[in-house]
Amino acid sequence: MATTELTAPTPGPAAPEPAPSAQLSNAQQAAVRIEDKARISRWLLTAPAFVTISIFGVLPLLIIIIYSFLKAAPYGGVVWSPSVEAYVSFLFQADIFTDELVFSPDFLQIYVRSFIFAVGTTVICLFLGFPTAYFMATRSPRQRNWWVLLITIPFWSNLLVRTLAIMFIIRDEGLLNNVLIGLGITKAPITILYTDFAIVLGLFYSFLPFMVLPLYASLEKLDFRLVEAGYDLYASRPKVLFRIIIPLSRPGIIAGCLLVFIPALGAYVTPLILGGGRHMMIGDLIAQQFGSGRNWPLGAAQALILMSAVLVALFFYVRATTGKMKHGQG
Amino acid sequence: MVELTGLPAVEAKNVSKTFGAGPDAVVALDNVSVTIQQNEFFTLLGPSGCGKTTLLRLIAGFELPTAGSILLEGQEVAHLPPYKRMVNTVFQSYALFPHLTVAENIGFGLKMLGRRRAERDAQVEKMLRLVKMEAMRNRKVHQISGGQQQRVALARALAPHPKVLLLDEPLSALDLKLRKEMQIELKRLQHETGITFIFVTHDQEEALTMSDRIAVMSHGKILQIGTANEIYEHPVDRFVADFIGETNFIEAEVMQRIGNQGQIRLPSGLSIKHELDPIAAVGGKVTLAIRPERIDLVKPGADCQLSGKVENIVYFGTDTHFHIDLDTGGDLMVRVQNRRGFQEVLKTGDTVGLRIAPEAMQVLKD
Asked: What strands, in cross-sheet order, belong to the sheet with B331-337?
């Protein structure tokens, strides 16, 4: 290779160092030229990807990181002087009178609650989504397309509209309570709206398709001859499910859980409307800092803390699931 | 070893299977009855769509018969799910579990049967040795070759020591050399394990070389059951004669009959004595099936039944195929082994005589 010629060590310091090109034959020079051209065109072809990632991925993240280390301006925006105040105020609050820093778990509580809500939503979505996806994947190819269509139809209307619709259904004078009272199941309306239950219900409803679709994609690819082989080898129905179908659809389960958990953790509209602002989640909290809170650095810091938490959770989740895979596959 | 209960391993009694309903219904099996003995290497042979795989799947339990019963060592199993039948299948696609290792695949059936770990491990080791895959025990399925996957599939199906092993065209995905090796290997495994093998194939050569008995199937029916020799030498009808090996068909007329013996006239005008089927009436037509290797090429005019012109000569190494245009119309294929003889000097366009021993002419029902 021409490149190895170029980097080969020249013999002894006494020998005058000839220009590298002088050592190369015409053919080798031509080869180098072709390689250079190939390198340039490779760069040009990959440039759009780099530009996209830089402008829409790296740059916004950099802005958030920088803002989180600045001081808040009184009416929103930032004062350009470095500070870790935002991170300190995440866990501590300055006492009004003494200015002493006191531990305040208010934000932390919201984070913990959001995690619980997001995990709960993911688990419910998985338990109801798996049978749904399995049902869809085992229909005839023509029928499958209809089921996929039905699952994706909610995406065609606005999330806000759908969330408001849920609100009208579950409120005290709503459809659900009217039906329950009408059937004599309950005398007084059951309060659902503005409870934790309402939030998780809304999250579950919003994110169910994100669970069903990746599960469906991996179950649809499942070779059902393997299921038959399982039955042939004395595995009963539950054993086939747990020893063959679930292990083989693990990629879909992982993808579905991530696609539900991450957006559920940062959900904004659903907890705002169905939680009535009383049961805040991380998304609402961050939005508040950029809005009425007028504390951009704190909002930026909260967003970054959320991101770090997600990354840590992801790290353990992926390690646990792939670890199981390795174990399962020997 | 399988204890011999004296009962047939598998009995299918008047089994029918229809897929779908109404005008779209497809009859895959039409009133099929067959008895497969213990320790037999039994082959279901037929073209694709003849119902052979359906019969296998009915025995395995993947399909339920529309009518009829299936007995496994004398016990009715038609209503039992596959996991309650001591029958294992080697699938055409192998259907090995990709998330398990070779050893885990082989041990799967025993694990599901609830066997203890020590017993399982011992049996898996035995199976790995049996199929010569000891070195691959910890490999994943995608890390081994097609031929090795085939061996693992065999070992996995044999490990629980089923009463019957069902093999659904297991060699069709292998190349010719490997297929030949596996044919010998399968015979060895059957001999060593003493398990009844039911083998499905569309490859007549595979069927002839491996089977104790063969059932030739077509359009959901079993046409003939017999040993390889019986089926090759005495095919019952035109389909069987045509499907197994190469065959020439000649129309002949029944001249007279006395009991089973009759006099039939060939198109050349020559009349010969031959054993006749009871249904062949005097004056009627019969079809004679003649294997190409049972015809001798001789100088014309000598004592030969037919004569014709050499139309085409194809050299095959061990033998040569001659396509002969008969003087009486129609054509014949003749296969002659390549050794010193008359055929050496033959060229396209030469006139030849054909000599056929009477016992080489098989009178067909149809």
From this structure: B295-298, B351-356, B306-315, B319-326, B331-337
